[in-house]
Write a structure and sequence with these properties.
The chain is mainly alpha-helical. It has one domain. The chain has 14 helices and two strands. The chain has a two-stranded antiparallel sheet. A hairpin with a 2-residue loop joins strand 1 and strand 2. Helix 2 packs across helix 8, helix 5 crosses helix 6 and helix 5 runs antiparallel to helix 7. It is globular, with a radius of gyration of 21 Å. The N and C termini lie far apart (60 Å). The structure holds zinc ion (2 copies).
Amino acid sequence: MDLNSAIRFSIRQVSSELFSAGSIFSVYSLASSFALGFAALAYRRLRRRGRANLRATARAVFSKNFAARDSVHADIKLFVLSVIFMPAVIGGLVVSSNTIAMGVHSLLGKAFGPAGDTGLSDLQIKAITTVVLFLAYEIGYFVDHYLKHRVAFLWELHKLHHTADVLTPLTNFRNHPIDNVIFGYMLATFIGGASGALHWLFNRQTEMFSVDGKNILFLCFLWTIGHLQHSQFWIPFPGVWGRLILSPAHHQIHHSTDPRHFNRNLGSVLAVWDWMFGTLEIPTEKNPRLTYGVDEKGVNQHSSASILLTPVAKSASALWRALVSAPQFLFNARGVAVGRMLRRHG
Ligand SMILES: [Zn+2]
Ligand SMILES: [Zn+2]
């Protein structure tokens, strides 16, 4: 591929990411979640102070110097890189997800024989499939994220996501390509496994409610609160809602530099896994004005070398240390001691 066609290909990939209704970063989902977030903040001001004051609401959400931040520039580079290489990665993952699905389907068939007729209608089967595949995605996401915080060599790759010192919807793409591939295989395992089980149970190819191949339940999240998780909108879900769904504020806590918040709120949409595994931190109604990032003195965490090469070098060295020195180096100590101390002192 010559330079010209490479540039044309990259532009095509970026614009299809921006303008397809089912993409992770469509302008439509960005606009709808922004409108919702803005309306929620304006309504809260109206309730508290008797008037919405749109200018003050805008000031609470936008900082003048966002565009000049090195952190945002690094997010943009990783967004472009991820969007250009996405088709190749997704192609490989679809193959592996299908292989796992076929394996699980044939295993269940051999172990239990064909499943009997469930008596459910096509619509009911499609609805159940949509929910089960969404849950498979959610569990796969949580397991992947939990391991990336607990296993030292995985943390060195995932840390890049946490070095963002300002959160914008682009931060969603601030992941190392190897981190993305591991995530993809984790999802392929869970979604492929669930797909194979559904295929066996209903004796038909799995089919879910979707737009551009994306689960409709996941898109509902994306079009409402998904992008706000990486933003300045402090929108907390307190009480029982905060135990069920991860609000934007839940994920902002996940990025906090406060050691009390390390390794908390590891889920994607549902908070129930964090609730079950004791990693849930419900946000307060009042904005605590968190700071974000990973404290590493004297290091430029946003240079091209820091976002692409350093994570690989550090991850390889962490893995090497665990293999040749002692297995305890396999575990990431960040925040673990703090967690123990907090539990001891209630
Ligand atoms: Zn994380
Ligand atoms: Zn994040």
